[in-house]
Structures are given as structure tokens and as C-alpha cells.
Amino acid sequence: MATMMNKRSVGAFGKQAPVRSARVAARPSRSGSVRVAATAAADDLGFKKMRDGVKVASDETLLSPRFYTTDFDECERLFSLELNKNLDMAEFDAILAEFKQDYNQRHFVRNETFKAAAEKITGPTRKIFIEFLERSCTAEFSGFLLYKELGRRLKSSSPAVAEIFTLMSRDEARHAGFLNKAMSDFDLALDLGFLTKNRKYTFFKPKFIFYATYLSEKIGYWRYISIYRHLQRNPDNQLYPLFEYFENWCQDENRHGDFFTAVLKSQPDMVNDWAAKLWSRFFCLSVYITMYLNDHQRNAFYGSLGLNTTQFNQHVIIETNKSTERIFPAVPNVEDPEFFRRLDLLVQYNEKVLAIGRMDLPDAIKLVMRLPFIERMVAEVFQVFIMTPKETGSVDFSGNKAAIVY
Ligand SMILES: [Fe+2]
Ligand SMILES: [Fe+2]
């Protein structure tokens, strides 16, 4: 079963799939990275363990999932009924009532097929599978930490919004826990308590947290549902039972994204001026480009599920962008062929940079060799950023209170 490439019809994404995109979350700011002295040498797949059955977390890179923190005092002001007349509490109450339904309360129940399936995944596929699970678990856990802290900090000033955040952290804890259980099938679980205390937290202003979490939830939805549908069409590629849970799982992410739509609607400054347009595009591009480069570094993983990385990514980006244009005031025009042509160039340059990194040469030489490619990557990103965007959004702020016009 290991690394099989699908030889049958492979559905919408051809042959050759998900990691939650870089995802946001938080807590009191701390610094320091997760470099722990491994108590044992690397195993035969190259993974180090903190202790028996517990993996040392991967080093953080520019493209890896991060933990986030924000200005919680400003959040209190943004969700204050006295200070913000645009807060539509009826909408938040409706969202809260939906989250209380807890549709997935009984969804994340494992069965006996997990362990046996994990044992059948061997060799290089096993390694990329574990890396996929770790990235996904870290991203989900990052959401849990941020939402939990927001729930705690908003409790007295805005109880309904606080409860929504707490219920979303419930969902993310389930997601992260389910993925960590999957990692233990491979005898390499993460110590999430240790990560909470030791991983670096990146600070974003609330406005940027909302853009990033909205995108992260929606792109997560599209990734999960696309993989789910692909594997339903191509059951031979169902290497591991985790993916069978994605259909209901992704509905959690979709609901979380819809909550952030309501948040952005309640904050007109975040979606109605030139700065908002600029930042909206910036965040879209950051999220799309990060996913595109990350996933193309992991073609082998997507291949093991019978997905074509490029087709899968382009589908996810196009669909996420369609959702996003309903609330963001500007989004990149991803359907202009120039857009993916430039992203493909970025993938090529990134491959060169990574190949140089693997060479057995002094670091200074490798740096000099990488520079021309890094320069071309920066130039391509700039070119993508100055492409004519789509002016979008559906919120009319001409009155005192935001009116939704779609
Ligand atoms: Fe999640
Ligand atoms: Fe989520």
C-alpha cells in the first residue's frame, strides 16, 4: 500500500494533497524556539525523539505553521458594544447558537483501522506522512491557542463573542488532538504542552489576525473538502482513515471562517479603505504563495494520495479567493493566467534554493549561490503584488451601520 501512485482514473486533480495552511493562534508572547536536546539519536527516518513515542518538533522556518498572539486590550475595545456601534449582536448570537449545537461532538472517534493502516505506510511515504501530520497538528493547535486566549480575555467585556472563541477552540483542540493521535500511530506524537510553553509566538495586530484567520479557515475548508472528494472518487488512494473524517471536519473550518466574516463586517475600518485593500491583498498573497511553495516541496505526499499538487493547489486557491472576495475589499485576480505562471516560476526558483541548501558546501558559498534565485523570487512576488487586483467586497458602509448588500 505504501507509496502507490494511482493508475486508475484520478479525478479532478489528476494524479499525485493537505496540510492546513499557515494558521493563526495565540497566547502571552514569549520567545525562544523549540530546540530541545534529543535524548536519542535520529531514527531510521531521521526523526529525533524527546522521549519514547514523543517527537522533537521540527524547526520553524519561514513557511512553517506559527503560533500567534495579538493585542488583547484592543480586541476588547473592538468587541465593546459601547465603543463599536457596528457590532451586530443578533448575528453573533445566531453564530453562538450554531456553535453550541456542536455538530461534530461525536465525529472524532477513532477506530481500529488507524494503527494497521499506519503500519502499512513505509519508507519515504511514511516520512512525508509524519511530516504532514505534524504540520497539520501544529496548525490546528495554533488555532486552539489563539481562540482559547481570546475566549478568556473577552469573557467579561463581550461574553457572547468570548464564548464563540471558546467553542472554536474546542473544535481546534479536537482537530489537533485527532492529528496527534494519528502521529502516535506512527510512534511519534507531539508534546503539545511543551510546544505551548516553548514555541515562538508571532505578534499581529487584531486586524491582521482577523484577515489571516479568515483566510486560514477558508483555505483549510477548501483543502479538506477537496481532498475528501478526491479520495471518495479514488478510494484506492485512501492510505489512511484520517481523510475519511474530512467531510464533517471541514464544516467546522467553514463555520469558523463565517464567524470571521461577521467579525470583519463589524469592523468597517478593516474592509473599507485603501489600507484595507492593500492589506487584504497582501494577506491573500502571503497565504496563497506560502501554501503553493509548501505543497510543491511535498509533491511526494500529494502523489501518495493520487493528487496532482499543482491542480489541487490551484483549485483550492481559486475557490478560497471566490469565498474571500465576498468580504475582503480587494483580492488578487487569481484567474489571470499570469498569476499562476508567476507562482510556478516561484516554485522553480524555490527548488533551486532548496537544492543548493542540500549541497555539501560551506554556508557562505551556498548563500552566494542562492542569492540570484532569492532575488528573482522577490522580484516575482513583487510582480504578483502589482498585478491589477479585483475590487471586491459586499459591504456598503455608506451609512452609519454596515449594510450587507449581497
Ligand atoms: Fe481546525
Ligand atoms: Fe478552524
TrEMBL record:
GO terms for biological process: chlorophyll biosynthetic process; photosynthesis. One of its GO terms (cellular component) is chloroplast thylakoid membrane. Signal peptide: none annotated. Its EC number is 1.14.13.81. Residues 131-263 form the Rubrerythrin diiron-binding domain. It catalyses: Mg-protoporphyrin IX 13-monomethyl ester + 3 NADPH + 3 O2 + 2 H(+) = 3,8-divinyl protochlorophyllide a + 3 NADP(+) + 5 H2O. It comes from the Eukaryota. InterPro entries: AcsF (IPR008434), Ferritin-like_SF (IPR009078), Rr_diiron-bd_dom (IPR003251). This is magnesium-protoporphyrin IX monomethyl ester (oxidative) cyclase.
